[in-house]
Specification:
Layout: H1 3-9, H2 13-24, E1 35-41, H3 49-68, E2 73-79, H4 95-99, H5 119-133, E3 139-142, H6 143-149, H7 153-161, H8 163-170, H9 176-179, E4 185-187, E5 200-204, E6 209-213, E7 219-223, E8 229-231, H10 233-244, E9 248-252, H11 256-268, E10 275-279, H12 300-306, H13 309-317, H14 330-344, H15 350-355, H16 357-362, H17 375-385, H18 390-400, H19 410-430, H20 438-451, H21 460-473, H22 479-491, H23 499-506, H24 508-519, H25 522-525
Parallel strand pairs: 1-2, 2-3, 9-10
Antiparallel strand pairs: 4-8, 5-6, 6-7
């Protein structure tokens, strides 16, 4: 089996996407000498979790393509900073000043923070810092630069030369009122500096100009080149594909119609549109679409408070075409999924290795640190210990896994910090202890008696087996109810760890003390 066949046999979606590009260029390599991946950014706001997801997923496809092909690749992170400034964000200073510049291209709106030449430039800098934080390999591109430098001129003239064809594509998609004044070109008003939704009364492909009627009723002729105009965004997207030679760009489900229209425009301009991938949007805990205005979803800052960027990459990798709920409770599960995949990776070969999400997150250079405990176990340990400081958890960890320490176990040390933060903010406020029923009390007392056996070894598997047997002996036909009782009585929560592993980590004597406290009702008093 060839290497390419092994990669494709993994059935991992990035390889399936990369195969589209292999087929695209199987007869002729790209004239520009490289395959171009693109992600888009609207700099009216700050980069967010969706920004991360799109760049992370595109990078995964790029990495897969690099395994399948020797054609060089580039990734452009493209900012539409020529877009008109439509709304003043609530979270920026100098809002009155900004209101005076509504309608202008973002690259010409003063920076309210006073640190950059424009508001667009400020947010572009934030985007680059954001992407650099995660180590993405990309090249930043600015629409304002491409428009002003003339690098878009040829493609803009091509749009003008195909004006009627572009209008024929766009008009059926518009409401009657909008269609009556629609033009692909948006003039930049010489009087006000604003992007105008102005009726175009004439076009001249030979001169490269449009004639429009401005807000004062004046009829003005301007060139479409040199930054005097920008395009409506669906036309702009297609023009950008043509001008840059974009070969791959993914987008959210909400842009399906836009992708279709932009693809038609790209073909009308004489270029095959890029290969693409439609990913599903995130849902909140209630299954509702996440909205920035509602504030009903996680921010990237939220995730990174309780877990690493690599775990967020895993969440982006998993089932990208399925609508997934994105809320705080998914974080611990995703962390443990990541640790499981990481543990398996070194021993895997062939297609199995390339099906592992770890490859798509790290490439072939995955960290090799072995985890003595799961993140879920750390959370439960933090909950029982009421841990507010790392040293508390490390004391248990070093007894359980001799030789482990923060310096030599950086991932584990990160997890300790995340566990404390998650415990503090989510586990501790939600703890609800209850008293055991008579049957549960009898079973828990037997467990305490077993743990008092002289010389009992802290063997997780042996302890787990005994916990099972005690549950059976006390008539728990559904052992899930037995474990649920242990979690609610001893830990104050509905779900919990593998009890044998927890006892081995927490300590036999400590677990006996925990049981004694619970049976006396001292947890309830707290």
């Amino acid at each position: 089996m060839t290497d390419a066949a092994i990669y494709l046999a993994s059935n991992a979606w990035p390889f399936q996407e990369a195969e589209k590009l292999v087929k695209r260029f199987e007869k002729n390599p790209p004239d520009k000498g490289y395959v171009l991946f693109e992600t888009g950014y609207g700099p009216s706001g700050l980069p967010h979790l969706g920004t991360f997801g799109e760049v992370a997923r595109t990078t995964m496809v790029r990495r897969a393509f690099q395994k399948l092909s020797s054609i060089p690749t580039r990734l452009f992170a493209f900012s539409d900073d020529m877009d008109g400034f439509r709304k003043v964000p609530d979270n920026v200073p100098n809002q009155e000043m900004l209101r005076e510049h509504l309608g202008k291209p973002l690259c010409r709106v003063p920076d309210p923070f006073g640190t950059h030449p424009s508001f667009g430039a400020h947010n572009n800098a934030r985007l680059q810092a954001f992407l650099d934080q995660f180590g993405f390999e990309y090249e930043f591109q600015s629409a304002a630069d491409w428009y002003a430098s003339g690098r878009f001129d040829e493609a803009l003239l091509r749009v003008l030369g195909n004006y009627e064809a572009v209008m024929a594509i766009m008009l059926p998609s518009l409401r009657a009122e909008r269609a009556s004044t629609y033009s692909p070109f948006l003039p930049i008003c010489a009087k006000t500096g604003r992007v105008l939704q102005a009726p175009v009364v004439a076009t001249d492909a030979g001169k490269g100009t449009i004639t429009y009627r401005d807000d004062d009723g004046d009829v003005i002729e301007i060139p479409v080149t040199g930054g005097h105009c920008k395009l409506q965004w669906k036309c702009d997207w297609a023009m950008r594909w043509v001008a840059l030679g974009v070969d791959y760009e993914m987008s959210g489900k909400d842009l399906i119609d836009s992708v279709k229209l932009s693809g038609q425009i790209s073909r009308a301009l004489g270029r095959q549109p890029p290969e693409g991938f439609t990913y599903e949007l995130f849902l909140d805990e209630k299954g509702e679409k996440i909205s920035k205005s509602k504030g009903n979803g996680l921010s990237i800052e939220d995730w990174l408070t309780y877990a690493s960027p690599e775990t967020l990459s895993l969440y982006m990798f998993q089932k990208p075409k399925a609508a997934k709920r994105l809320y705080f409770d998914v974080i611990p599960r995703t962390v443990d999924d990541y640790l499981t995949f990481l543990e398996k990776f070194p021993g895997q070969t062939g297609a199995e290795r390339y099906a592992n999400p770890v490859f798509h997150i790290h490439g072939d250079n995955a960290p090799g640190e072995k985890m003595p405990v799961s993140f879920g176990m750390l959370l439960n340990l933090a909950g029982v210990c009421n841990a507010e400081e790392p040293e508390v958890l490390w004391a248990f960890l070093q007894r359980y896994a001799p030789g482990s320490n923060p310096a030599d176990n950086p991932i584990l040390n990160q997890l300790v910090g995340y566990a404390i933060a998650y415990y503090r903010d989510f586990v501790k406020p939600a703890k609800r202890y209850r008293a055991p029923t008579p049957i549960e009390r009898s079973a828990i007392e037997e467990l305490a008696g077993h743990l008092a056996t002289p010389g009992l070894a802290a063997d997780a598997d042996v302890l787990q087996t005994e916990v099972f047997e005690i549950g059976k002996r006390h008539g728990f036909t559904n052992l899930r109810e037995w474990f649920k009782a242990l979690y609610e009585v001893l830990l104050g929560q509905e779900t919990g760890p593998r009890m044998g592993s927890f006892i081995a980590l927490y300590g036999i004597a400590e677990t006996r003390a925990l049981i004694d406290k619970a049976l006396k009702g001292e947890n309830l008093a707290a």
